[in-house]
Amino acid sequence: MAASSMRRFGRLGCWVSRREFSTCDDKVVVQKSGKSMNLYSAINQALHIALESDPRAYVFGEDVGFGGVFRCTTGLADRFGKSRVFNTPLCEQVHLMGFILTWPHKQGIVGFGIGLAAMIVNEAAKFRYRSGNQFNCGGLTIRAPYGAVGHGGHYHSQSPEAFFCHVPGIKVIIPRSPQQAKGLLLSSIRDPNPVVFFEPKWLYRLAVEEVPEHDYMLPLSEAEVIREGSDITLVGWGAQLSIMEQACLEAEKEGISCELIDLKTLLPWDKETVEASVRKTGRLLISHEAPVTGGFGAEISASIVERCFLRLEAPVARVCGLDTPFPLVFEPFYMPTKNKILDAIKSTVNY
Amino acid sequence: MALAHAASSSSRSNLLRPFSAAISCAPSLRRPFSSSSDDTRTLTIETSVPFTSHQCETPSRSVETSPKELLSFFRDMATMRRMEIAADSLYKAKLIRGFCHLYDGQEAVAVGMEAAITKKDSIITAYRDHCTFLGRGGTLLQVFSELMGRQAGCSKGKGGSMHFYKKDSGFYGGHGIVGAQVPLGCGLAFAQKYSKDGTVSFALYGDGAANQGQLFEALNIAALWDLPAILVCENNHYGMGTAEWRAAKSPSYYKRGDYVPGLKVDGMDALAVKQACKFAKEHALKNGPIILEMDTYRYHGHSMSDPGSTYRTRDEISGVRQERDPIERIRKLILTHDLATEKELKDTEKEVRKLVDEAIAQAKESPMPDPSELFTNVYSKGLGVEAFGADRKEVRAVLP
Ligand SMILES: Cc1ncc(C[n+]2csc(CCOP(=O)(O)OP(=O)(O)O)c2C)c(N)n1
Ligand SMILES: [Mg+2]
Question: What GO terms are given for molecular function (chain A) (predicted)?
Answer without folding.
Answer: branched-chain 2-oxo acid dehydrogenase activity
